[in-house]
Structure formats: structure tokens, C-alpha cells
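Why do we care about 3D structure at all? Because function follows from shape, and shape follows, mostly, from sequence. That is the central idea of this module. The next example makes it concrete: a single protein chain, its amino acid sequence, and then its structure expressed as C-alpha cells.
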Amino acid sequence: MNSIDAQNVIDKTEQTLLAYCKQQGLFKSGDRVIVACSGGADSMALLLFLLRCRRALSIEVLATHVNHGIRGAAADRDEAFVSRFCEDRAIELFVYNAKRAGVTVPDSPSEEWARNLRYDWFDELASREEAHIATAHTMSDQVETVLLRMARGTGLHGLGGIQPHRGVYVRPLLCLTRAETEAYCAALGQSYVQDETNARDTYARNRVRHDAVPALISVNPAAERCIGRLCRQMQQLDAWLAAEAAALLQAAATSCGYDLQVLRDADGPVLDAALHSLVAPVRDAEEKYVSLLRFLVIKGEGALQLTPDVTFKVQKGVAGKELVRIAPSGAAPAPAPPQPALPGVYHLPGGYTVALRVEKYEEFLKNAPIFKKDLNCCADYAKINKNILLRTRQPGDDYRPRDRHVRKTLKKYYNELAVPMKDRPLLPLLADGSEVIWLWGSGFADGFAPDRFTREVLVIRTEKTEV
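And the structure:
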């Protein structure tokens, strides 16, 4: 590749990635981003891109490497390669070596075992360093994932594939194929390591990669891009359906369950999505559990035990209405599924009630006593993303307490306030991605207060009843 061609590849790749990061809202100014770097072409491309474009993205870039302890000298070589790269460029690197950490490695470790090891470390690291984790999943990985899910049985949500943003995890390379990341490394003159296990057909993903994907590309050279486009369309459709499902559950919500008649009146796909969101916090939302719960709703009687601690059952409620109720058998109730934070009144598990209202700021000032606690319950509506969610805590959440000009992980902030561990899973909050903009008991985050330019305010009132 001559220098002109190389520069064209570099420019095109970086423009594509920067546009994708902006479109998906993957980064905010000042974010700390830890790149999960194996040393392979994809992760080296990701690390190089973020290093080269960190000023444009206004982020701090760090790295982490996981040595699973299952490939002997080859794994140690990969660890040394990544360590040397980071040392030469003064990049802070966090290495997790399973054997040095005292982890017992199974005789025949599965892909699932290795993945759990990595993500347990990533979760811990993200929390400790108050950072996001950037993984190098590409469009090629997306295609393999969707094909595997289709073969094993999946629904609409599964067809969406890998999400560009989930909790603390961001995936900036989902708009590139594996061939494009390799071309980017080549254009920059960057070497990378090869994991020899990728050439073996021991794992199902490798068989899909070596056989199914080439067969599809032989039919259509743009097959990967076509499937990637389908995934984006399914993600959009799934997000719309999730919003409809959340609205259904809100309409059906009572103080002690969900009104069966409201659920029965919903369109089938919306009802299924709503039931899926009820099952998901309790256990894997397999089709059979959603189907069983649907049968219970239609029949109007019976119970469905999902775990030893959680049972869904139909019973008579207030005014004789039939209700679907989560009966926790002594355990804490499951959190409500995340839902769009639209104006209205929300009755949530644990006895929490949250009322959201948008009103003219001058009317709010005229009708509300002006105490600090009242101002904490309102925010400039123009400063708020209208796609915020009402939900409970998730890994990677952070919060900026009002008037303190600092950002804290939600876990650290709860610790600072001495919030009991038993209360934390159900405390309601409003969030824009992983940024908590309103928190039960603390009010709106720093930066959302009304000012002299404010025209409308989002007002939140809360109530807690004993359950």
C-alpha cells in the first residue's frame, strides 16, 4: 500500500468512526475510556483510533488486557505485546492475569467461562476507575452473533445483535468489518497478534465465521453490511416496541400489580414485549416463560414460579379487578423495567410513586413555595434529553450532586449517603444513558437547574408508601 492509499484508508476510517460515535452518542466530553485490548487487529485498531482522535472526542484513553491463562506461552506473548505498546506510548494499562490472580482455570475452559472472567474484571475496573469500557466488536462480530442467535432460536430483541452502548460498555467499531480494521492497522503500519484458537473449529462461532459467513458473501459481497443494516433496523423496532410495552405496563399498573383487562386489550406483540420486560429482571426471558405468562394473563387464573423466590400469580385486587402480581415469597420485589420518562404518575415496586409534570416556569414559581428542596425537584426542561428513562440503578451509572461540581459513581454516592444496601435495587432514578440526571432523595443532578432563560420546567413529586 503506497502512502497516498494508506492516508486515504486512515482518513476514511477515522471519519466513519467519528461520525458513528457522534450518531450513537457514545462519548461525552471528559469521559475516561478504557479500551479492552487483546492485541488482535480489531482491538489494536480501536486503541489506535481513540488515541489518534481523543482530542476530537474530548476523552481520556486508557487500556486493559486480560490473560485468561488458557493459552500458555502464546497468551503471555500477547500480554507482553500489549504491555510494550502501552509503555512506549505512556498509556495507563490495567492487566488482569488469571493465574497471578489465583483463578483456577478449568481443564477445558469454554467460551462462556472466558467471557465471564473478562466481564467480571471489566465491571470491577469500570466501577473502580469511574470509566467506560470500549470493546472492539465489529460488524463482522455482529453478523456472527445474529447468525448464532437465529440458529439457536431468538426473537426480535435478539435480532438487534450487539448494542453500540450498554451500561458502561461502548462499541465504536460496529460500523466496520473485520477486513476494514485490518486495513486500518496496515495503513498505520501497526502490527498485531493472532490468536491461534480463532483458526480452529472447536467453537461454534469459529464454524460460523469460517463456513456460514463466506457462503453468504459468495451470494452477496455486501452480505455483512446488509445484515448489519438489518440489525440497526431491528434495534430501532425493538426500542419502539419497548416504549410501547412500557406505556402498556404504566397504563396497567396498580398499587399491587397489573390490571389483567388492560393487558388483554393490548396488541399481541406489545403484550409479549411487556411480559418479556417483566420476566427479564428475574431470569433469562426465554420464550417459554413469556408464553406461560401470556397464557396465565389470557386464562385469568393460576401462577407461574420463575425462581424459588419469585412467582407471578393472578388474584383479585382492589374493587375485584383481576391482577397479575409479582409475589416475591419473602424476597425483595423485582425492579420495574426501564421505561420512557413521560409526564404522568408511576407506581413502582417497593411502594415508590413518582409523578412527572412539565409546566411553565413562572407558574411553578407562582404556585410552589420557594425552598431549596422545592427547587431540587424541578429542572430546565430544555436541558433534558427527551429520551430519558425512568429506571433503577445499572452498572456504570454516575451522578453529579447538585452544586458540588464533581462526578461520582452511583455506588460511591450511595455509600456516601449511607443508603442501606437493601433499598438500593428499587430506588427510582431518571437517566440519560449511564448519566443519572435525577435521583430519589437527592433531586436533579448538577447542571439542570433553571436559570433566567428557562421557559419550561420538569417537576417531579414523590411519595413512598410502606409495603
